[in-house]
Design goal:
Two copies of one chain form a homodimer. The radius of gyration of chain A is 18 Å and the shape is globular. Chain A is an alpha/beta fold. In chain A, a hairpin with a 2-residue loop joins strand 1 and strand 2. In chain A, about 35% of the residues lie in helices and about 20% in strands. Chain A contains ten helices and 15 strands. Chains A and B meet through helix 7, strand 8, helix 8 and helix 9 of A and helix 7, strand 8, helix 8 and helix 9 of B.
Chain lengths: ~300, ~300
Amino acid sequence: LLVNGKEMHSLWREGMQIKMIDQRKLPQKIEIFVARNEHDVAYAIKEMVVRGAPAIGVAAAYGVAMARDSKKAAELLQATRPTAHDLFHAIATILGAIEHGEDAVKAADEYAAAIVEKCRKIGEHGKKLIKHGYRILTHCNAGALATLDYGTALAPIRMAKDKDIFVWVDESRPRLQGLLTAWELEQEGIEHAVIADNAAGYFMEKGMVDMVIVGADRIALNYDVANKIGTYEKAVVAKENEIPFYVAAPLTTFDKSIEDGSKIEIEERDAKEVYGIYPRKFKARNPAFDVTPAKYITGIITEEGIIELDK
Amino acid sequence: LLVNGKEMHSLWREGMQIKMIDQRKLPQKIEIFVARNEHDVAYAIKEMVVRGAPAIGVAAAYGVAMARDSKKAAELLQATRPTAHDLFHAIATILGAIEHGEDAVKAADEYAAAIVEKCRKIGEHGKKLIKHGYRILTHCNAGALATLDYGTALAPIRMAKDKDIFVWVDESRPRLQGLLTAWELEQEGIEHAVIADNAAGYFMEKGMVDMVIVGADRIALNYDVANKIGTYEKAVVAKENEIPFYVAAPLTTFDKSIEDGSKIEIEERDAKEVYGIYPRKFKARNPAFDVTPAKYITGIITEEGIIELDK
């Protein structure tokens, strides 16, 4: 993650403190949030100081590792957000390490380093899909902020930045995580434009989008993908316009215990995230994720290669 | 249009003044904008004091009728906004009346009265499509505010309010005209919830939307429909989920000089409408409308009946 020309991670350990770029404050300012225990980490996940499935996983890993009572910490952290699979995977990994008598903090460090390496590999595999001059649409922020470094959807884009590419950034209401993506692209010097989510279909239909790449919060056994609300609409419209639609995610996002997407729990967040920008309150509903059936997905870019779904 | 229990129009003539509810101020406050000449009317259309294709048409009709030089006024008003067909139709109607030696103000009054009556009839035809307990999705504001009274998309909904209906209101970024719809529904006591535009597909896919009704800005000869940005996405996703998708519009919105939707000029508005809610400026694009090909439309509800497109 490039921040004013300096390479850094969006979350890292310093002694027994977990430091993270406070994503609620971006892009206005770069502020560091310090978590000193599992309660701070739980707060950070719940309030979206840290967000993005892989980054949430790393934060939770450290939360368990730092706790005196790792079982209690695991329970606390599992209750923060229900949709991202990495959270549960990371907690299970650290609990497993503890059970095997390993050093929990070292296990969390390894988990963090592995996520960065997985994202780097996702970038390597994914960049081959991007041709010179491609105009790529992305939704939400599946960037370095969401994954410590590189990103999932943004990793291939970062690595293809010498290919004269352009990125359409869905603003991603209600929480406008698209601005985090735009901020990362600014930092990297990659051409882009933010659009109202409603305009994605317009540009697709006009032939101005060559491919779509998004991240994922949870992937079912049949490759149905839960991701930020709106992903489903974009996937349906992409398919209708024969635009390749790729999901980028490490294997930690795959949940083999869930047969298909209909069984993924979808978090419904406070309606205030919707009406908060209005001049006054209105009755509102706020599902934070949706499920994109595998049939709309061209392929899933993982650290081990691309799973082709559209044959 | 019900405003605090009192019936009124969103735009009306008093002597030689045109009064209109200032839609930029809603829903915070009900403020009346007074136009004293064609320049005031042009400002009101451009700045969206008045909006919605039929209401823009009525405003322009009065603008021409009030002017000393009706030809110059017509030119001025035609240059305000390019997409809504009613604008051009209304101006041509008044110019025609003047040419035939008719009283221009009377012609504009008749044009206004006719729009209200057309919307009433759209409501009568459209309400037959709405079954008891229906959950209806709408996009933007095609309500009484956009049409003086009743609305186009909202006319059938108003007239079916005793059928225990529920309305999903797309917030309709970037300008959030969904709030005008929510405000109208509040005034009428019709159950509703505002949602981020991204969530429309989620609720459609969950089987929680029984039909979609939207308005239109211009309808081509082949029934392709230009309407608020995002309409196209909703139509594609509705079709994918076998949800009836209706457009409601008076015949003044039909442009027989345009063969198909690809020839409709799409207004691109100031990018500030997109980034204005962000903590700081980002590069942005802002097309205000899109075109929904006729193949995604179940039918068009007009004052003369329903044009069935999906046989």
